[in-house]
Amino acid sequence: MKDAVASAQLPAKEAGQQAYLKIAGVVKKFGDHTAVDHVDLEIHQHEIFALLGSSGCGKSTLLRMLAGMETPTAGKILLDGQDITRLAPYNRPINMMFQSYALFPHMSVEQNIAFGLKQDGLPKDEISARVSEMLELVQMKKYATRKPYQLSGGQQQRVALARSLAKRPKLLLLDEPLGALDKKLRQQTQLELVNTLEKVGVTCIMVTHDQEEAMTMATRIGIMSEGQLLQVGTPSQIYDYPNCRFTAEFIGETNLFGGAVAVDEADRVEIDAPELGGRISIGHGITGPKGMEVWASVRPEDIRVDIRPVEPGPNRARGKVREIAYLGSYSVYHVQLGSGKVVKAMVPANRWYEAGETEPTWDDEVWISWRDDMPVVLTA
Amino acid sequence: MSLLRKLSPGRGSVIAVPYLWLTLFFLVPFLIVLKISFAEQDIAIPPFTALTEYADGYLNVKLNLSNFLYIFTDEFYFDTYLSSLKVALFTTIGCLLLGYPIAYAIARTDPARRNVLLMLVMLPFWTSFLLRVYAWMGILNETGLINSFLMSTGLIDEPLHLFHTDFSLYIVMLYAYLPFMILPLYSNLVKLDLRLLEAAADLGARPMKAFFTITLPLSKNGIIAGSMLVFIPAVGEFVIPELVGSSETLMIGKVLWNEFFDNNNWPMASAVAAVMALILIVPTALFHRFETRELEGKNHA
């Protein structure tokens, strides 16, 4: 039922691409606690996939199972046709860039990068060629003989990346790759990291709690909560067509209105939304009977705020301004409706000036409204 | 670069406390011992001559070098120093081989059980050291625990000669010094970031390889600290060789005792002690300087 609504709106899956990594029914239990709960996922070659979720959602456990540091309680993991579910970490063609990097403190940058290659018993000249290629890739040639403690956070991150790429893994795992960097450096490093990964063409799974990081870097995102994979899709699919309330609220901000389906036609639905004090009209049909309980998700940027009364009808309500957050190019208005519900609406900075109107302020009466193609109907 | 110069007066005085302590209770006594070592044996109280004499406007300084000449020419002393160093070295190696796995295991158990295990390591200290050495007599001698057990099972017909041998010496040395190896090793190993081992495994290192390339080099400081804590007192150990060791095993602690209490030759005993201190201090100081330089290198980066 959950998928029924969403998948009707989702573009068809890219056809013909074979799954490179296949996670089938993977479960991980720690005692009574189920950390990962029946996760199915397919990743294509050269993809940068982000597992996104808040801490404790099971994303790190899933990643550790891919690396071989945890063994699934049930399920299978296949990489390039090979069953790796129970393979020891040192036998997997998978490398990981650890959160806070786990660089070997007693080894130089070069030695850190060469470590994995030495385990494979490659000839000396090949190791040194590969190390210098990696140093070149992450632009750390100058620092080859430094020890990790002599490097800045950003430099350590690049060494960690070089070390995890040196063995040319079939799959690269990134555990909160930029979590240890400060915000400004993080944004700059995001694009740098994506460029490097694309240059190498490695298939990549990253784990992050930062939705902005996931949206910027990943080709596809999987949203996890309480051990379950709730939704998988491209960043825009997930933002525009969340399939449940959790995803809608987790990715970006949204206003949720619960209610029962009152009108159910092929190309039009109306929802009785007590919190809105009226009806929400949706410009497309949904699968589901009349009277079914659903939620309408309306993004703050899709809500229009007026200081003059709007004509009565669905998708609108009167309220009072409770809070205004000025954020430069736009402001977020917190409008309290008659039911007590507070709705967030994003208003462009030039909205009032262009309309020749005075800007509403605290406790002013305003009207909110949105078009009937804006809400997304959620059934879970 | 002087460390003291960089510090503010407040921090300087904090550091001055250990300096003062070392001066009062190590440097001054050592200088006194050094002074006595240049004196001559005398029938007096104290039983040695003064180094300086003032008469007729002349200050005569009389340094007696014969004690040192004797130490450096008589093979007996050379052999004794060598034998002491050998016993201390083997004790240190034994403690390391035995203590490392124990410290490692304690560091890897869950925190709740760790304290219990550490308590067990330290528990013997609650009993007097001498009592514990005597207990070993009861275990090792001809009518001791081991021999009577082996006799009663019929495995042997006559008692094994375990006591007053090098075997008993090393057993008791190991027993006595093991905690001094375990504790510094433990405190080092417990700090090891386990993600480094995961990273090593991830990069293809099997557990053994990861141990030798990551854990062992990173525990270097623990190994050094533990080894020093065992080696230095073991060189001068007197009680254990005297009570359980073989009479043929030469130990410098025993020689010291003989010179002091049997021969009443304080200058000779002092010379023996001074040479031993130099043998221990010089390599330690050199090593420490090397370490400091490495540490300062880190700070400059």
Structure characterization notes:
The complex is a heterodimer of chains A (380) and B (301). With 380 residues, chain A is α+β, with helices and mostly antiparallel strands. Helices cover 26% and strands 34% of the residues of chain A. In chain A, strands 6-7-8-3-9-10 form a 6-stranded mixed sheet, sandwiched between helices. A 5-stranded antiparallel sheet of chain A has the order 13-12-11-14-20. Chain A has a 5-stranded antiparallel sheet with strand order 15-19-16-17-18, with no helix packed on it. Chain A has 2 domains: 16-248, Rossmann fold (3-Layer(aba) Sandwich); 253-378, OB fold (Dihydrolipoamide Acetyltransferase, E2P), CATH 2.40.50.140. Chain A has 10 helices and 20 strands. Chain B has 301 residues and is mainly α. Chain B has one domain (74-300): MetI-like fold. Helices cover 73% and strands 3% of the residues of chain B. Chain B is built from 14 helices and 2 strands, in the order ααββαααααααααααα. Chain B has helices spanning 3-6, 9-37, 66-73, 75-108, 111-122, 129-140, 145-153, 166-189, 194-202, 207-218, 220-235, 239-244, 252-262, 266-300, and strands spanning 52-55, 58-61. In chain B, strands 1-2 form a two-stranded antiparallel sheet. In chain B, a hairpin with a 2-residue loop joins strand 1 (52-55) and strand 2 (58-61). In chain B, helix 3 crosses helix 4 (75-108). The longest helix of chain B is centred in the C-terminal third of the chain and has 35 residues, at 266-300. The chains are: A alpha+beta (380), B mainly alpha (301). The interface between A and B is medium-sized, with 28 and 19 residues.
